């Protein structure tokens, strides 16, 4: 096993860097489901680091982000933000009923804005301009002055190359542009951690690069992030820590991304990474045809 890699699903007892996000033994189970979609998940995300979650479709990656963001209740474990417990799980009732943790929307507005999330879909308000989409939440939710929010929104749009599109409608933007607006809309709330859920999944290849470049720049600026992605080259380049999620459990963790991609510690990780390797057997096929 390469140094920095573990197969155990346990948080480190001693953390050299302050953990912005701590997840302890998290369980997520839907009513009537025979088994949890997430089972005994534990990890920490240190301040200023990029935490990447990989895994096959249906492994629970997006559900994990949604529980952290408070959009899904949990049935076990705890979620802590900067050492403060923001959610404690409660089991479902005998017949699958019961609260099953705090329901979505039960967190205070302050807690909700401390965790930013950008989804696969852009979810911009179609009847508002780009600038209005970015300034709406800080004005209505955080009660900030409109002029102050407008100035910061313009600065954010300039950072992502969209200052000249501030008065455009979402329908007038490309998919990559809309996703960059969604990133600005989350950043303006000053979250302690940003969650990105496969933000390039709905984009064509040319638009993928422009969105990923923005996220790379945010990482260089020290923003704490948790990223779910199927872009392996991007994950390899941006991650400080990588986990592989499969069947609702963490099967491998590594704080050495290069080692994870070149020498994975588990057979499951090896099989997962092999699905992104393609090779044609041209020479072998030609030899068979010539015989």
Give a description of the structure.
The chain is of the alpha/beta class. It folds into two domains: 5-114 and 192-279, Rossmann fold, CATH 3.40.50; 122-190, no CATH class. Helices cover 33% and strands 21% of the residues. It contains ten helices and eleven strands. It has helices at residues 61-68, 109-113, 130-140, 146-159, 175-187, 205-220, 232-238, 257-262, 267-274, 282-290; strands at 5-6, 19-28, 38-46, 50-54, 76-81, 84-88, 115-118, 193-197, 225-228, 241-246, 249-254. Helix 3 (130-140) packs across helix 4 (146-159). The longest helix is centred in the C-terminal third of the chain and has 16 residues, at 205-220. The radius of gyration is 21 Å and the shape is globular. It comes from Bifidobacterium mellis. Pfam families: ABC_tran (PF00005). Keywords: ATP-binding, Nucleotide-binding, Transport. Residues 21-272 form the ABC transporter domain.
